[in-house]
Amino acid sequence: MDVTDLALLKEQYTTKTALATELINLEAILSLPKSTEAFISDVHGEYDAFQHVLRNGSGNVKQKVADLFAGKMTPQTISHFSFLIYYPSERLAAIKKRYHDPDDLHQWYLDTFQRLIKLLHFVSTKYTRSKVRKALAPDFVYITEELLYGDYHSTDKAGYYQQITENIIALQQADEFIIASCHTIQRLVVDHLHLVGDIYDRGPHPELIMDRLMRYHSLDIQWGNHDILWLGAVSGSRLCLANLLRICARYNNLSIIEDAYGINLRHLSLFAEEHYQDNPAFRPKQLHSERPLSAAEELQITQIHQAIAIIQFKLEGPVIARRPEFKMAHRRLLDKIDYQKMTINLHGKSYPLENTCFQTIDPADPYKLLPEEQRVIDQLLSAFRNADKLQRHMAFLMRKGSMYLTYNDNLLFHGCIPVTADGQFQSFKLHGKEYAGKALLDVFERNLRASFAHPGDEDDCATDLLWYLWTGPLSPLFGKHDMTTFERYFISDPATHEEKTNPYYKLRREAWFVDSVLQEFGMSPATGHVINGHTPVKKGKTPVMADRKMIVIDGGFSKPYHKTTGIGGYTLLYNSYGMQLVTHQPFTSKADAIANLTDIISTKRIVDQVTERKLVAETDIGAELKQQVAVLRQLLADKE
What distances in angstroms separate CA 173 from CA 80, 143, 158, 162, one per listed residue? Predict the structure, then answer.
């Protein structure tokens, strides 16, 4: 604790009684059970599935209901009551339609109040009253506390409690009270959320996820490689911007740009229409659940896809040329093409090119943008920088985000720590200095924050590093030697599509290696875990490795990965009893969930179980409270 904090405590607690009271409070808090943390990664714009997992607490809400009302509710009643907690407004509308007799609805309200108060009490037992009060809806704090902490065995207050509940109904506040209570239960079931990267790309509504996160009570974010593209675009990287637009076109998600963030793509569309035609390699991917595109819509996206891809490949050349420290000269591909034969020379071998769209490329100067291309990308960059909603979302992502986090004996980062085949941390040279391990992540984060705070010129090193984080061979967020985007579009030989992964992904199965990673970040191998996202866990593979020290939680929230993973995502829960990995089956839709009570089927697996419940005293917050306790005891001794 620094001198400033000490001075503030002296000012805040001026009397012996005040010091003693705060000591009693803090030491009591240290004895409470640790609250529940939830870890999610790679949600990739899948808002409906994401918000459902938040609402049901990764299955925790229904489990709490089943535990509390065991023997008193049928499975069907448990399901109905749980869905009321998940979606109170929508379920109330449906339930009220079933009751034609006002007396029946009145009775349902009274029964529901009683059940909600019992459940609220059940989920709040490991919190202080002060914390529970902060979680309550302000309009109902007094009423809820009276019912929550009431003595129902005393006849003296029986009429008092009855009058409260009757008046809630009589004054037409029943629906609002139920909605507020359900939201409080959701909030208390999971105390803190860790989102281990990749909010953006592929799915249709990352902006709704960001809106939801901005309302969430307590969270942190570890940036993923897809998030970096969006941060890079608003920081001034034309290359990051071109990449994210290409991905949006590829996955039929350009509406995110136009509808969600109000950015006009008309200039890009007109340019694409003038210069490009249909091309099977660039047609947008469509999921069966989506509205089929008309022929005109598909052609327009296909043209945009080609236009922005070629702009991207042109922009890569100058960045790679001016950054020899990136060691990516082999990725300057446009000057390796024989434009007459339509072949390319890669690694000493010639490959035929197919589905080409090189009509805007000058073979004599292949990386030079046409004046129209330059205007288009400049206009788009200006639009991204001035989009208010996007700026708010990115500012929040910066404020809550980081390259990595150590939290309660867990080390969280999205991708990898670049290493050699024998497990040595690989170094990246920047401005004459070598960075490896923890220092590598730190230097990338410093440059990202500098670029975001002061968007520079297009040849600014910090801004170029944002693109490197997306695709560079020693990027801890990418974790591969090459991103073979060009090859996948234009070369049929699958050998050229291979993206060699960093040895980290093989070594992380070994306990000795995970121990070395934990030690690099100042953590204990005896108690620590590493939690990653980024790489979908394929069917038949385990997400828990290295004697349960390594946990990979990318289970495929993104619909394009459902075939790869066979599931709909993972959530990791960490409470006072230990760690549980929750496996979620694919989510159908919010409408189906509400109408048919279709919950995500979730199964839990114990990852780490403790013999004694973990207390607040054993957490990072507990360590901070212990420091305060020591200072308060010293201040108290000074008053003796």
Answer: 22, 11, 21, 15
CB 418 within 8 A of CB 426: yes
Q: Cα 116 vs. chain centroid, distance in angstroms?
A: 30
At 455 the pLDDT is 78
Cα separation, 635 vs 6, in Å, equals: 9
Angle at 110 between CA 108 and CA 114, to 5 degrees: 115
Helix (H) or strand (E) holding 52: helix 47-55
Q: What is the pTM of this model?
A: 0.93
| 527 contacts 610 by C-beta, under 8 angstroms | no
DSSP string, 498-516: --PBPTHHHHTTSHHHHHH
Largest CA distance in the chain: 95
Matching residue, tokens 């953590």: 523
Q: What residue ranges of the chain have pLDDT lower than 70?
A: 1-6, 287-290, 456-458, 555-556, 558-568, 600-605, 640
CB under 8 Å to 130, separation ≥6 — which residues?
none
List of residues 6+ apart from 504 with CB closer than 8 A: 416, 417, 418, 419, 479
Cα angle 148, 152, 153; round to 5: 145
The H or E element that residue 578 is part of is strand 578-584
Angle at 99 between CA 98 and CA 102, to 5 degrees: 165
Structure-token match 């957490």, residue found: 619
Strands (E), 397-555: 401-402, 404-407, 410-413, 427-430, 433-436, 529-532, 544-545, 550-552
pLDDT of residue 619: 95
Q: How far apart are CA 219 and CA 414, in angstroms?
A: 16
Residue 290 CA from chain centroid, whole number:
23
Give the span between the Cα atoms of 296 and 290, in whole angstroms: 16
Three-point CA angle 155, 161, 167, nearest 5°: 145
Q: With beta carbons less than 8 A apart as the criterion, state whether 208 and 46 touch.
A: no
The pLDDT, as a whole number, for residue 538 is 73
pLDDT of 121 reads: 97
pLDDT in tens, 455-498: 766 678 999 999 999 999 999 999 999 999 999 999 999 999 99
Rounded CA-CA distance 429/426 in Å is 10
Asked if 148 and 117 touch (Cβ cutoff 8 Å), the reply is yes
pLDDT at residue 609, as a whole number: 77
Question: For position 466, what pLDDT does the model report?
Answer: 96
Of the candidates 627, 438, 573, which has an alpha carbon nearest to the alpha carbon of residue 40?
A: 573
Residue 560: its pLDDT value, please? 65
Q: Could you give the 3-state DSSP secondary structure of residue 64?
A: helix
pLDDT digits (tens, 9 = 90+) for 298-339: 999 999 999 999 999 999 999 999 999 999 999 999 999 999
- Among 178, 188, 187, smallest CA distance to 81 is for 178
In sequence order, which residues have a C-beta less than 8 Å from that of residue 46 and are 6 or more positions away? 203, 204, 205, 557, 558, 559, 587
